[in-house]
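sanity check this:
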Amino acid sequence: MKVLVAGGYHSGKSSVVRFLSGGGSIHIDKHGTTVALDYGRVDVEGLRIHLFGTPGMRHFRILREILSRGADGVFFVIDSADPGRDDEANAVKREIDEFLPDVVRVYLANKQDVNGARPPEVVRQVFKIPDDVPVIGTSTVTGLNLSLALRMLVAKLIEKASPLLNVLKKHDGEAGGISRFADAMEFNLASTRKVLNWLELRGYIEVDWRAGIFWLTSPIKNVLEKSDELSKGN
């Protein structure tokens, strides 16, 4: 999965990528400012997550647009300790809303370790973030809630894909399963290839086109099993 880490200048994006990737991120900067991208990898429940951090300064719009392509989810990082940066953060937010209008996102009210930092509920109001979109207080200094935020984002991505995954589950490992999946979804061949390639690239399934079979990967099976257990418990 590809997760875009965006936000205004000096909001802590590079530090978020560095923390979540265990310090093993790639950082292209000049004088301490990101001028190209940050990149890191992390596994969540066996799923490989690729983190792409964007520059925050306004004149890097074209780079943000390029890095946005193909993103499955967004971490939007806000400097909760400095209201003076809200205007530039909002400008970047409008860009990301334009580039990725339907993509799952989680907002980080970062720098909660700083005295006077605004709590998440205030950040939500200031940036007019809908109630059903998570805003989580974080700190890259203490690590506050960063792993929680990533797991929440992954859970929301799986939830968004669950209608498709539930159909896949019915034909997991079946001979001719690809054809049965296509019939169930009313997909033509081109659409079927596009969707299954997209899912395979993200580590959801493995596909044998010659045999007409696909298999859900172990991490996705585990996620779906946990979801079924929760549903039965309710």
Summary: DSSP finds eight helices and nine strands in the chain. The radius of gyration is 19 Å.
